[in-house]
Design a protein that fits this description.
Layout: H1 9-22, E1 27-31, H2 40-47, E2 55-58, E3 61-64, E4 69-72, E5 78-80, E6 87-90, E7 104-109
Length: 110
């Protein structure tokens, strides 16, 4: 009987990556330019699949009216934690963030 549960997007993504690796897929383009947003941390979790070490993901800044300058919010700084060190991503320091007109990454197996 169908329980009506919605499958995890992150789980489906990781399953697809495992299948691509088993089939020795040479490359993959991930294009999320029409992503409507909502779960920014999910993008970090997905892309962490392509790193072998903890990697800087993003930070948020705010305007401090007392100092009159923009400052980084340390409580809003995030890192991507690796989950599968068997892959390489190119360029090796992609930009993750809003406002990017076209967010495409070429992913290559090592």
């Amino acid at each position: 009987m169908d329980t009506g549960e919605i499958p995890s997007t992150l789980g489906l993504f990781k399953t697809a990556i495992e299948e691509f690796n088993q089939k020795k897929v040479k490359g993959l383009i991930i294009d999320i330019q029409n992503n409507v947003g909502g779960l920014d941390s999910m993008a970090a979790d997905m892309l962490a699949s392509f790193y072998s070490e903890k990697t800087f993901y993003e930070y948020q800044s705010y305007y401090n009216i007392l100092s009159g300058s923009w400052e980084i919010r340390p409580d809003e700084t995030r890192e991507a934690n690796p989950s599968d060190p068997g892959l390489y991503i190119e360029p090796d320091k992609p930009f993750f963030g809003a406002g990017v007109p076209k967010w495409q990454l070429l992913i290559q197996n090592v």
